[in-house]
Amino acid sequence: MSSSALQSLLVVEMGDSVAGAYAGKLFADYGSEVHLVGAGPLIQGGNFFCSSKHINGPDLLNAADVVIQASSTDPIEQAIEPANPQQIVLRISPFALSGPYATWRSTDLVDAAIAGHLRLTGSPTREPLNGVPDIVHMAAGVTGFIGALAALMARARTGRGQRVETSHQEVLAALHQFSLLRYTHNGAILNRMGNRYSGPGTPIGAYECADGWIGLAISQSDQMERLLEVTGLKHLLDRDEVETIYDVMANQELLDGELVPYLKTQPSADLVELFQALRLPVAPISTMEDLITDPHLQDRAFWEIDDDGVHLPGAPFRLSDHTWSLRPKQKNEPFSSGEEPLERLNDGPLTGIRVLDMTRVWAGPLAARILADLGAEVLMTEVPWTRTPLEVPESLVNATHFFPDDKAGNRPWNRSGFHNKYANNKLSTVIELDKTDGRNFFVDLVRKVDVLIENYAPRVMPNFGLGESVLKDCNPDLTYVTMPGYGRSGPHADWVAYGPTIDGHAGHTWLTGYRNEIPWKCGIAWPDPTAGLHAAAATIIALLDRHCCGLTGQTVEVAQAETAINMIGQHVLAAQVDGPRQRWGNRRPGRAPQGVYPCKGSDRWIAISVVDEASWAGLCEVAGLSDLQQLDADQRWERHDEIDVRLSSFTIDQEDRSLMNALQAAGVPAGAVFDAADVVNDPQLESLEFFVPLTHPEAGTHLWPRFAARLELTPATMRKAAATMGEHNEYAALELAELDRSRYDALLIEGTVRTEPPE
Asked: Using CA atoms, how far apart are residues 623 and 601, in angstroms rounded to an integer?
């Protein structure tokens, strides 16, 4: 096998951060020589992060191509500077190295609070609920990894290294699904919706069956029709308050009132088999033990088994010509460096790369938009039915709050905030791929691009007559990126897979829940953004391989379920070594106390984490708990309930922001549980110029989050608002595909190329 770009890298990892450890693991697993300086993060399942690294080796800081400096709880006090002009330094911290929160302390719970994610999970009548432990830091790790890869691409082209920075807060703020855009488009605040998806539509969430739990994600009207038919609930459509099927989808109380009792009488395996046969998005909710024995994962040889018989999660993505392994590596040659002037990379380090984006919903569009933010020319090659219908029912408008001022308008397909968020920086052409002329046009486009990315089920592209082999025949150098839910092989390859169902199947839902209670659906579908981040990273690796090593025509496979399992890898390991995972709610062993406590006002809360004796002393001073200050960590854990009662009686009379500031001043990791308005108007994010205004010709001017990693010399850019549907048809046809005018006009007349959805 040919040498890859990452095999030419020496990486030094420093700090106690899960985020830094995961960034280092990705470098190490995919070929780099990585040296861990110090003990690394003290967490369960730590071997998940370290199996492919060199531990406490020689001092190689000056010789490293990439230095990772990361901190989990405390700010980075002494920032490492590049040792030479070609070195890349990646810094990952809770709140960045500048701004009003720069000196603050944090934990994953506090990060989730201040970034607005904590508010989205849990019961609306109870305290907000933390999600999977450490997943917010894992997301920061892969974001930092993308930033470092982008800097490496800039170095490969210009010979220049640079500083790259990101923070937990920026990463999480960038990964809101639709809560922030609802606020920026019409002032709507999204809050917790119980053990369901924190967004529009139902049933999306965790449902109890006769012998276990399943995850459902019914989000389309045709899916709802089939669900009502198979469960015997079609009579709901006859209710007086129901005019369209969207009224049922938007009324959780109405549907759950009859669906929940029905599902409790049915075996989970039977429901999964039946619903999947009807192309309904469903999956079992897996325990950590279920994952080890899952037949699909076994068929795909996903697990690596160590000398002690412990199953280690396999690759989060697969590259056809790139080695992945869980063993320490040795750098084999110098990393290549070019001499392009920096000015050529004004749009970002991927300037000059051309991408065809065939993705839908969230994971794929996010991956492609990151590539666009980093400078690539990304052309959405849309099929005409994927945005919105010609007419959007008012009930759907009011349920989603996706449209500016809650008005669909005459052309709703151009006004949806959810689409536009992931279409910023992109171009658009719309092609009917079920027509021969449309497929021929598409093939002409494929010949002119570097990357094609799609997230269809494995059968879809071949059904169009556009399978990978066909596309590689017309462009042998094409990097083909595919993002099927369960991969392109195995017994579940053709399953309908949505983020919320993968969430359950990959173990995330089982790890989430109030203490000693039932599994709980997370407020966002984490498999979507994490798959999107990993797909962007994998694509840049393939581009580095092409640029530095002449490896062309690679295939990148991102199975979203495998990526999601990788994100909880430490918990899978810990379950095998220490026994089954317990749901701790907002608590965390080793931190006492830790929780979410009520504050003055309606649904206002504060997250507090005591991580050491200093933070306990600070909390006692601020909260008037001096009589408890002598308690050590073990004693505080034993008396956690008592301490929580005392803390709640104090915090309930406090204003959340004032208390947050007071606790942080006392050295206590604490954060108000922000809603969307708080996040959009946050002074720390404002100081980092995190939100960028873009003006869309039909949707108006709105704020959008930029890419969360900041590159010093070749920054990601927010260049233009989302394209209207088919806005760049002419550019795609006449300039890229080089069609003559008469052929293009014929495509327009026959409706093969369009600027609006079909009737």
From this structure: 18
204-287 belongs to CATH 3.40.30.10:
no
Across residues 69-92, what is the average pLDDT? 95
Over range 419-447, report the average pLDDT. Answer: 95
> CATH 3.30.1540.10 region(s) of the chain?
204-287, 594-680
Tokens of 222: 């045709």
Residues 48, 465: Cα–Cα separation, whole Å: 41
What is the structure's pLDDT at 667? 97
pLDDT band at 173 (very low <50, low <70, confident <90, very high): very high
Distant-in-sequence, close-in-space partners of 555: CB < 8 Å, separation ≥ 6? 319, 320, 468, 479, 480, 481, 482
- Of 303-317, 534-548, 614-628, least confident by mean pLDDT is 303-317
For the record, the structure tokens of 20 come out as 């830094």
Q: To which residue do tokens 């995850």 refer?
A: 215
Q: Does domain 594-680 have CATH number 3.40.50.720?
A: no
Residues of the chain with CATH 3.40.50.10540: 5-190+295-337
Q: Domain 5-190+295-337 is classified in which CATH homologous superfamily? A: Crotonobetainyl-coa:carnitine coa-transferase; domain 1 (3.40.50.10540)
How many helical (H) and strand (E) elements, i.e. helices and strands, does the chain have? 31, 24
As a three-state string, the secondary structure of 235-301 is HHHHCCCCCCHHHHHCCHHHHHHHHHHHHCCCCHHHHHHHHHHCCCCEEECCCHHHHHHCHHHHHCC
| Global pTM value | 0.95
Which tens digit of pLDDT belongs to each residue from 702-720? 999 999 999 999 999 999 9
At 695, is the pLDDT very low, low, confident or very high (cuts 50, 70, 90)? very high
CA atoms within 13 A on the CB side of 265: 5
